[in-house]
Amino acid sequence: MLFCNTQDLQTILNILYILNELLTVGGGRRVGVFVSKGGTGILLQLVLSGSKESPPSEELMLQLHSLLAKVGPKDRKFGVKARLNGALNVTVNLLKQNLQNHKLLLPCLQVLRVYSSNSVNAVSLGKNGVLELMFKIIGPYSKKNTSLLKVSLDTLGALLKSKTNARRAVDRAHVPVLLYIYQDWHRNDTRHRHMLIRKGVLGCLKNITNIKLGRKAFIDADGMRILYNTSTVSTVTKLPKTQSCLCPCVWLPVDDVVDESDDNDDVETENDTENEEEDKDHHNDDIETDINKLRPKETHSRPFEELKIYERFFLELSEDFQVMQDRHPFVSLSQRPIIVPTAQALPPKYPTAAPLQEECHLAKGEQPHPEASPLAPAPTPAPVHTLDTINITKDHDGCCDHSQVRPQPVLEHYRQPPLLAGGVAAQQGGGAEETLAEEWAEEEEGGEGAVLEVPDTALLLPLHDPDLYVEMVKSTRSVPQYSEVAYPDYFGHVAPTFREHILERVYGVQRTKIFQDIERLIHPNDILDKVVYDLDIQSCPVIDDGESLKFNSQFESGNLRKAIQARKFEYDLVLNSDINSNHYHQWFYFEVSGMRVGAPYRFNIINCEKSNSQFNYGMQVLMYSVQEAISGRPRWVRTGTDICYYKNHFSRSSIAAGGQKGKSYYTMTFSMTFNHKDDVCYFAYHYPYTYSTLKMHLQKLEALRTPQIYMRQDILCETLGGNSCPLLTITAMPESTSNDQICQFRNRPLVFLSSRVHPGETNASWVMKGTLEFLMGSSPLAHSLREAYIFKIVPMLNPDGVVNGNHRCSLSGEDLNRQWQSPSPELHPTIYHTKSLLQYLAAIQRAPLVFCDYHGHSRKKNVFMYGCSLKETVWQTNISATSCELHEDLGYRTLPKILSQMAPAFSMASCSFVVERSKEATARVVVWREIGVQRSYTMESTLCGCDQGKYKGLQIGTRELEEMGAQFCVALLRLKRLTSPLELRNHAHLLDVESDLIETRCKVSRSDTCTHQGYYSKQELTLKIYTETIIFECETN
């Protein structure tokens, strides 16, 4: 009160001195309290009243502006208050009158910097000549007043964020001035003591080049060459990221739809908002604050009569077991040609069974050589195979088309396959039937033909069958009508036994890559710019001059749109967007051939969209070598060096950026050397898992069904692309047909699982594979689990997206995991019918005990869960609610807690149970709110690796992902016992382990020691989970 009413100058100054000391020592918390009590307005009023004195008190203005410089950044409305109050003009006039008074000039500039964070203020200050004032203050190299110069550059940078001010700077030829100042400071600041000043100049240039006129002025002033030369001279300067932002923005080298307004950046929308820095206590505005939306719905949105049609998917709830259960296998519907891989060469002189047997031994615990590498060639050199493809056709009657089919050649591999689809068609460039007949006769006499080296992986991959996979491909429908099969999908993948560590990036590699990109702009004549692959031009010839790599992505789940040879061993790659969408560029899967052994190839994927990636934190791309596969090592391995991810100079159109202008793409770059001549290699974002692979696995799983297992496979619906969406039911058969047993069977709680709603999250399918294999297993745990629950599983919610190589969307061009609130039966059939199944269960009072949707996460490590909690969401907001309103059972935390104690890849610390507005239409939130499932989760698996637990420092592989799926099953069994303690008596065989407990601990310990931190065969994995669960139960009971 004294502060507001006193007219005594000395009293006011004394109060200001005290306030300055308090706010300087107290930090942000005290400043926040001062702002909340209206302190900002009082200070601004004092500035206005003090300016009316003639002349104004210099000490008063000094103290007031020093305080405002501290208070302003913490007050979101500071700029608006200053403009409305009139203090803004006072500060500007004070600045003009005191250009030589550095003592007063510094706090005035600090306050002006905060004023300028408001876009309306920035434009107003530019009109009042403040921009020219800044250029009077900044200047060439000088050891004097460096602090003043630093603040001036920051203020100028804030002003230049306004496009109006940026145009004004271009019109007044300030760009060459800034470049001269930068050069002068770079030349004289040899000890790099004033890096912040040079960074401030670059920040001003960056803001000017946000407009087209600024970029043109920058190029005309030879800015690229100046910055490139100054940056490469110094090894200390850390400015390549800033310099890359100054590159002239260009469009991607593809024919995309571009909004014409993207090139018109002369129009500026002036919003009266602050551009303040985000502090640590930043409030998450995405958290749901409406308690009514956080409560489960009490009424069902659809009448039961509409839902009765889904009764046929729940035969187990009324099954009397008087008739055999119906099963619905997939039916092959397609008769189009399918190309399957082979290798045309003479039979190998060296047996390839030895390396495969070595893999078998290693999988059971032997340690490989410490220097073993994923790409190391076999000890015995295998012959070089020239790889090709074989075309398989059928006529409309399903018989062989003899006009195109050659007699079956000799197929040399470890197990003789049946004839593939009726015959093999030769790949001839033309020729008469007589020529073909002569060639056939020569092959008959020579006894040699095309050799298909198919590794015998039946022991290691019991669910994989190359011939069956080809049959599954025939009924898979794609938009491009793919007729080829990728080698990795045909051969299969055996998880490597060696550890794949998270890659440590060499310091400075990103800087080097950015400089190499900038060299292209400075020396454009050194760039080849040769298109070697282009899906947009169907007639684009495949260049086979021996100087260029050959690319291909025209197979299931493939994604590569264009390949451009930039330098001799460097290629720019452009990914396809999701079908019927202009964005979501992340998933890639393509084939490369024609490589030179030992050459240092660099691949740049230039149209990535996310602002950051795990590729910057140790994640590597995956590669599959066909030469390695036919030598007995069919596997995906992590590979690539000099991997980094950074913003590039390619502009995204506003259409592709969701209406936002000025967005840029990002580059993911990696280097690679190949070890085999005439190899065919595949690169992928993550371990591919195609829709045809799923169908093959389901058919193999169904063949494993024993009389004790109840398994039914239904077709839930057809997708927009005409592919079937499978629905699985798995539980245990009743022990007898007595009423008690049938009643127990029908009343088992349900668990509903789904996966792969986002096609690019292939790790979700590998986790689901581990879950399905465990459920169909013969272990006591699997049997108990089947007796405990009825599992309803939709293993692939987005088959069309998977088939066509999408990353996130279905053929409707929409993210299906944002359609759960109001799915369309026409546009989102899999979501509509899956939700209908859950609505039917809720209507008959049989809502699932657990719902879990498997996903993959591209920006975090480990495996974790997202759940839903009213209480935890409210705690993150400022909502005032009574304890009655927040009453909630904490059971939603039980399953994640169990997983954190059992699964080595799972991290409880990464879990979250907060409901956000942007996630209200996801499966997890809708099933929680509308179906009333308390334990409704999204389980996220990392695409990179783990930073905690047993797998710390390792990249995640299919073995760990499948293990996670199995561990999830075991956790469900533990959850059942915790929620139904009386049923523990039914599982006494799992608790009677006291005499074997110590011995079991010793065995598990020895196993961990000899298997490289937890790499096990399938049998050992089941035993390990079984024993660890027993130990866990005994310790917790």
TrEMBL record:
Residues 258-279 have a biased composition (Acidic residues). The active site is at E940. Its cofactor is Zn(2+). GO terms for molecular function: metallocarboxypeptidase activity; zinc ion binding. It is an enzyme of class 3 (hydrolase). Keywords: Carboxypeptidase, Cytoplasm, Hydrolase, Metal-binding, Metalloprotease, Mitochondrion, Nucleus, Protease, Zinc. Its EC number is 3.4.17.24. The keyword Mitochondrion applies. Residues 280-297 have a biased composition (Basic and acidic residues). It catalyses: C-terminal L-alpha-aminoacyl-L-glutamyl-L-glutamyl-[tubulin] + H2O = C-terminal L-alpha-aminoacyl-L-glutamyl-[tubulin] + L-glutamate; (L-glutamyl)(n+1)-gamma-L-glutamyl-L-glutamyl-[protein] + H2O = (L-glutamyl)(n)-gamma-L-glutamyl-L-glutamyl-[protein] + L-glutamate. Its main location: cytoplasm. GO terms for cellular component: cytosol; mitochondrion; nucleus. One of its GO terms (biological process) is proteolysis. Residues 687-976 form the Peptidase M14 domain. It is found in: Cytoplasm, Cytosol; Mitochondrion; Nucleus. Residues 258-297 are annotated as: Disordered. It holds the Pfam family TPR_CCP1_N. Belongs to the peptidase M14 family. This is Cytosolic carboxypeptidase 1. The lineage of its organism: Eukaryota, Metazoa, Chordata, Craniata, Vertebrata. The gene is AGTPBP1.
